[in-house]
Specification:
This is Putative olfactory receptor 56B2. This protein is an all-alpha fold and 319 residues long. The chain contains twelve helices and three strands.
């Protein structure tokens, strides 16, 4: 009877904070990862700020395509900033504790920004589809109003549809385990500590991934299939090459973004013999795209390169 009463009291205990342990299996030397992660974070911030400055200062870049790129830069900085300060605090100052409200808030913001990034990729794919397949109608379809409406829709879609993720996680009962073998508050990592059934959390996570990111990816694939079909009908090889070159940078980023999402999903659902792999992939997926996106666009886009040269030239002259 005493044992049953003791077990009952333990089951009613609710932990007040979680402990983010960092990278599983390498706790003794994980602080060495702080330098490359800090450099990636600084690169992400500086590169995206530079992209925003170039787009703002160069009048020729005041076009819908570059407005979407500017919004993507803001989303990238938000995504990286949501996780990197806490990760660096864990690695540098051993600040592993995080309160439950802070953890659930981080979980929500991460989902919002990842969904927003996926949505911006879709908007940019639609922009390229109209520009290549419907060039005469492009000025009347892809307008400033279209950019505003698409951005607002994506923001509302992700902020509203993501609300159940932290709400459902907060409804779970965390009675004993408080240590999370992760650097951030992922939905599956947190809810795996709950003492009650978390089936609904897993179902909604899967449903959210398929309905939002799955539909985005499907529409992106359709857009580029139509673009490829249109380009192959062009008689001029030079025109076809020019049309495809405008999509190359976008495709590179899309392939990296969604490939890592798929790999993370598979490694989380599978029983990994090396648990650090999904954790490391999850962290890198939230910091590498923000650092990679502006560099790929700057290297592959002639107008952005010219804008960069002008900004640097003005800066050098002013000094």
């Amino acid at each position: 009877m005493f044992q049953n009463l003791k077990a009952s009291n333990i089951s009613k205990i609710q932990v007040s904070e979680f402990i983010l342990m960092g990278f599983p299996g390498i706790h003794s030397w994980q602080h060495w990862l702080s330098l490359p992660l800090a450099l990636l974070y600084l690169l992400a911030l500086s590169a995206n700020i530079l992209i925003l400055i170039i787009i703002y200062q160069e009048p020729t870049l005041h076009q819908p395509m570059y407005h979407f790129l500017g919004i993507l830069a803001v989303v990238d900085m938000g995504l990286a900033t949501t996780i990197m300060p806490k990760i660096l605090a864990i690695l540098w100052f051993n600040a592993k504790a995080i309160s439950l409200p802070e953890c659930f808030l981080q979980m929500y913001v991460i989902h919002c920004f990842v969904g927003m990034e996926s949505g911006m990729f879709l908007c940019m794919a639609i922009d390229r589809y109209v520009a290549i397949c419907q060039p005469l109608r492009y000025p009347s379809i892809i307008t400033e109003s279209f950019v505003v409406k698409a951005t607002v829709f994506m923001a509302l879609r992700n902020t509203i549809s993501t609300i159940p993720v932290p709400v459902l996680a907060a409804q779970r009962h965390y009675c004993s385990q408080s240590q999370i073998e992760h650097c951030l508050c992922s939905n599956l990592g947190v809810t795996s500590l709950s003492c009650d059934d978390r089936t609904i959390n897993s179902i909604y996570q899967l449903l959210l991934a398929w309905t939002l990111m799955g539909s985005d990816l499907g529409l992106i694939i359709l857009s580029y299939a139509l673009i490829l079909h249109s380009v192959l009908k062009l008689k001029s090889a030079e025109a076809a090459s020019k049309a495809l070159s405008t999509c190359t940078s976008h495709l590179i980023l899309i392939l990296f973004f969604y490939t890592v999402v798929i790999v993370i999903s598979i490694t989380h659902s599978a029983a990994m013999s090396v648990p650090i792999i999904p954790v490391l992939l999850n962290v890198l997926h939230n910091v590498i795209p923000p650092a990679l996106n502006p560099m790929v666009y700057a290297l592959k886009n002639k107008e952005l390169r010219q804008g960069l040269y002008k900004v640097l030239k003005v800066h050098i002259k002013s000094n």
